[in-house]
Amino acid sequence: MAEKTVTEEIEEEVNNGYDAPTNVNEVEVINTYELEEKAKKVVPKGGFDYMSGASGDEFTLKQNIEAWNAKGILPRVLADVEFPETNTSIIGEELKVPFIMSPIAAHGLAHQAKEAGTARGIAEFGGSIMSISAYSGASFDEIEAGLGGNNRWFQIYMSKDEEMNKNIIDEAKADGATAIILTADATLSGNRDRDDHNKFVYPFGMPIVSRYLKGGAKNMSLNNIYAQSKQKISMADVRFLKEYSDLPVFVKGIQTPEDAMAAIGAGAAGIWVSNHGGRQLDGAPGSFATLKAISEAVQNRVPIVFDSGIRRGEHIFKAIASGADIVGIGRPALYGLALGGWKGVKSVFEYFESDLKRVMQLAGTQTIEDIKHARLFDIK
User: Fold this and answer.
1) What is the pLDDT of residues 280-313, one digit of tens each?
2) In this structure, what DSSP letter does residue 308 have?
3) What percent of the chain shows pLDDT beyond 90?
4) In the beta sheet, which residues pair with residue 90?
């Protein structure tokens, strides 16, 4: 049989409906880079390119990985380390590992279980947090079926209608959210060439924000969805979310010390250092390249979450040694979902746990607090 062209693959998705994987199985994770290539073989092209792609020339996407190579870890020996302890806490919540699920839209592109599958994988792993995106393809009830009462934070893309924002926050709180994440770096979509070539539209709706999206997001492009959301995000929005929700508010998308300090001044309870996985402004630095300066400015006033480019235990270690309190896992979890459903997500989280413990042992650090005092060195 002749190999299908890109155009034929896209037409098949449109004509036959979106055929996301359905299998549920454990996934062998030797490293998370390989998961991407494996997921590419099972996820429909439009969905895979949406998940794996980034903006423009994908310079910033590449920098998210290359930035790690600017710093090395100085290992300590004779450190009396055995069975490293990865437990930590943030805003009073106890975690068994210093990483959580980053908020990502439309998990249904990876697997038919959607966010409920990711949620169950995290719940079965235990001791972490599911960040629920307002652009989820599943409802709060569907996600709860997977989470089963486990911890969750809620990430909001705000409506232009303040009353709708209040309604969404009320629902998130009723669902059990213990923190609000304001994504501040996505007031419109980056120029995602892969999506444009594929003429990508969402093959399903977004139940949480459907009340202010005409058509509910199904068959919409990301540009159309952003156009119906609030673009003008300011310090007033941080204050509103803090006061109305009465929950800790993290401002996500911080890439400069100035913005970190402004967010704290507006009442943010936490800073989330991220460049949206390279999916917004191409030409921005790798996320890790900005972390140290931001953490030095914050000076432990509030906790710092870090994401964009986490692929190995060394990356988690370097981020914490540079000032992060915890990190967010993004694409690797979606690739695990694609390859094995909830069991695949659990496999990915287990990989990061064991890989981080390996790095901690070899670096001579017994606890997460020890990592915060570990020394990195510049690689010339």
Assistant:
1) 999 999 999 999 999 999 999 999 999 999 999 9
2) S
3) 86
4) 93
Best CA proximity match to 48, nearest among 339, 343, 347 = 339
Residues tagged active-site? 276
The pLDDT value recorded for residue 228 is 75
Q: Are 181 and 133 in contact (CB under 8 A)?
A: no
Which one is predicted more confidently, 192 or 380? Answer: 192
> How far does Cα 138 stand from its chain's mean position?
17
Q: Take residue 78 and report the two structure tokens written for it.
A: 């004779």
CB-CB contact of 306 with 346 (8 Å): no
The token pair at 184 is 């501040």
- Chain-wide mean pLDDT for the chain? 93
Cα separation of 374 and 367, whole Å? 11
CA gap 341, 343 in Å, rounded: 5
Q: Residue 377 forms beta bridges with which residues?
A: 72
User: Both tokens of residue 378?
Assistant: 């510049």
**CA nearest to 326, candidates 104, 153, 169, 148:** 153
Q: Distances in Å between the alpha carbon of 184 and those of 189, 193, 283?
A: 12, 22, 18
Max CA separation in the chain (angstroms)? 63
Burial of 88 (0-12, 13-18, 19+ CB in 10 A): buried
57: its two tokens: 């020339």
- Contact criterion met (CB below 8 Å) for 223 and 188: yes
